[in-house]
Amino acid sequence: MSDTYIQDMIETRRAIHHRPELGWTEFETMWIVASHLDKWGIPYVMGTKVINPEYVMGRDETEVKDAIERAKKHGVPESFIEKTEGYTGLVAIIETGRPGPVTAFRCDMDALPIRESDDPSHLPTKLGFASERTGVMHACGHDGHTAVGLTLAHWLWDHKDELCGKFKVLFQPAEEGVRGARPMAESGIVDDVDWLVGSHVGGNFHSGEVTVQDGGVLASTKFDITFTGLQAHAGNAPEKGHNALAAAAAATMMLQGIPRHSEGDSRVTVGKLVAGEGRNIIAAHASMEMEVRGNTQNVNDFMSENVEYIIEGVEKAYQVKANIERVGEASTLVVCPECIEKVEEAIRNVPGVKLMPRFHGASGSEDCTWLIRKVTEHGGQGAYLIYGCEHKGHHRPDFEIQDETNLPVALKCLVSFAKLVNAKA
């Protein structure tokens, strides 16, 4: 692997880290990707060619408009913004001109609403590429995922004469909150894909360690819920009010009591609750952000249905108006043994990399599951690869990935897989 590829990848990762963007607002990140693809002559598609608006969840139109204006101020051309049709998400397409399988690689682009550490020992701070956007940070490694995917596209383009078939590199928006993969899957962009590999940095693994996940990914549904009551004076006319705060608090406690399910593990969390107007006012407003998860789709659906039943009951009991919106969903991981074996073979072919036992720990949720599920519906296969790093925990202000050490591992493993399944006859 040429040092030029590695150096470009590291520089790209740091540029993206410096200007992080939340889900559905990744216009500057997309422009970085598109600019490199244009420079190399690699074709790509975006907008509604890769995002089906009917399946979009958790997208705030005001935030998108603000992001577009911010992107313009940072040099993203109006002509590029128009081509996005207001939707982030881009797919590079590399044709070899020879018959063979269609192989796709998925990488996500979005950051998190976290203020990055300014501790001098924190690598991005120490080396001068920490987030310049207060309260927004790449605290899960998606900047590295994007840089790896972009460099992979460059390598595939440069070496397409040595390969066969077609490649697609999916730059997916809005993985956080599991919002972006379903609309990408439903756009038709993976309908011809034979092999799809998703990947993630970190997890439970260290530098130089790589594994393939063979289950343990939880299905999940994310909800935003609002309660609207009626204000009244808390002292002289409390009976005239309808207390949205009390309704939200009651709902929070009742949600914890959703029955467990005999088919497997489940989770329920109210992560954020904001309510009330003042000390002596019957609260008219409350808003809640919460989620459920299940280790099968059926368990997750059971949890989701019970959330809706509880909110409906609280609405009547407290005489408030409740609005419940699904703002994100992930499915379980479809396990494809043949694809897993090929990914493991590819990993073994990379010198200096340690192939770890398959990972099946109870974990979080990942919307790459929708893309893999979509590929398997027409007979394709998918797998999910994890490559290690030294981190203090995902979604923390001091999250680090050691890009010079760990991103090359991912790149080499993905290149190895491409060479394995798309070898020129």
Automatic annotation (TrEMBL):
Pfam families: M20_dimer, Peptidase_M20
Molecular-function annotations in GO: dipeptidase activity; metal ion binding; para-aminobenzoyl-glutamate hydrolase activity
GO biological process, any: folic acid catabolic process
Annotated Peptidase M20 dimerisation domain residues: 222-312
Keywords: Hydrolase, Manganese, Metal-binding
Binding-site residues for Mn(2+), renumbered to this chain: C140, H142, E176, H200, H395
Source domain of life: Bacteria
Free-text comment on the cofactor: The Mn(2+) ion enhances activity.
InterPro entries assigned: Amidohydrolase, Bact_exopeptidase_dim_dom, Peptidase_M20, Peptidase_M20/M20A_hydrolases, Peptidase_M20_dimer
GO CC annotations on file: cytoplasm
Cofactors, names only: Mn(2+)
NCBIfam families: amidohydrolases
PANTHER family from the UniProt entry: PEPTIDASE M20 (PTHR30575), PEPTIDASE M20 DIMERISATION DOMAIN-CONTAINING PROTEIN (PTHR30575:SF3)
Name of the protein described by the UniProt record: Amidohydrolase
Lineage, opening ranks: Bacteria, Pseudomonadati, Pseudomonadota, Betaproteobacteria, Burkholderiales
